[in-house]
Amino acid sequence: MHAHGVRRRLFGAATGIAAAAALLAVQAAVPVDAGIARGSFHQTNLVSDTLGLAKFTDKNLVNPWGLSSSPTSPIWVSDNNAGVSTLYRGDGTAVPLIVAIPAPDAPTGGTPTGTVFNTTPSDFFVTDAKTGKALFLFATEDGTIAGWNPNVGGTSATIAVDHSAVPDTANGAVYKGLTLGSVGSNNYLYASNFRSGHVDVFDKNFAPATLAGKFMDPNIPSGFAPFGIENIGGQIFVTYALQNAEKHDDVSGPGNGFVDVFNTDGTFARRFATRGTLNSPWGLALAPSTFGNFHGDVLVGNFGDGLINAYTPAGVFRGQLKSETNAPIQIEGLWGLSFGNGGAGGDPSTLFFAAGIGGEQHGLFGTIQNVG
């Protein structure tokens, strides 16, 4: 029986919730305009599965990871420990649609991580009696990639790639992230396979693809594997975290992280960030020109300590996001980072985040906005 990639960090849940509650109280006590430090940002907790931690409560928001949206849609959230994707508008209000992510051997219980909106006009079709283009795509820790089309699966995504037993059941893929890119006129999906230490690439029909490069950096130390992945400006940014013994989860710690930049054909472009303030980095986002002191910078979120690092596009470290009190913004279990789409998915100047608080047994979805 497949274990469905259930997270193993059960410890510290009560501590995490208490800390989150304390953080919420502090945030509520500090007016947005009171003694604002220059270059500061304000965190707003929009949704949580835990009553009282945010403006809205949603029991399905459990260990949310990736965030995706079309140019006009609400934000789609991968709820890793609930086996679903939930949808929220920019103000945190929920959309009634809840999409089930299947496990390899069951229609529910999948473990979604990265997610991406399918921007291609005619690629990545899924089939389950009916056939249709996947509108949204999800990678899972089960080693699958699933696509959703309402005319194919209704309120369920459909598995298009199942590498849960590739190369074998003991060493099946563990996909932590997913992004989309193109080489010439050909579109590809890129999935970070944390267990194998590779980036798996799939063509428009979800078949494994061979490109010019293999997403390899010979200077990454042994034991570090692709963790987060994002297409930024037409290049593939890959974060690296330290593997645990099972090569399923990361081992956090100060300096445990790297970020590389690759061309979409898999060839190595450059090292972007090395150790320093990185700590199991996963979330990646390019800040718009309206994002205060860090406008135009690449933001890299640490899952390990919840801090958000900012780098110039050339990879020069600029600092970490700070609150109105000049203390670093620190969000336990930080996963996805994404800016609003200007439509139902919120203001394009607003940074949205997802986090697996309480040792990944609970969830938080919110915003970070420039206030000074």
Structure, described:
- With 372 residues, the chain is mainly β.
- A hairpin with a 5-residue loop joins strand 5 (84-88) and strand 6 (94-100).
- Helices cover 6% and strands 42% of the residues.
- The protein has one domain (13-370): TolB, C-terminal domain (Neuraminidase, 6 Propeller).
- It is built from 2 helices and 28 strands.
- The strands form 8 sheets. The protein has a 5-stranded mixed beta sheet, with no helix packed on it. Strands 3-4-5-6 form a 4-stranded antiparallel beta sheet, with no helix packed on it. A 4-stranded antiparallel beta sheet has the order 9-12-13-14.
- It has helices at residues 13-29, 150-153, and strands spanning 41-48, 56-57, 64-68, 75-79, 84-88, 94-100, 102-103, 106-109, 112-117, 125-128, 130-133, 136-140, 144-148, 158-162, 175-183, 186-193, 198-202, 224-232, 235-242, 258-262, 268-274, 281-286, 298-302, 308-311, 317-320, 334-339, 351-355, 364-370.
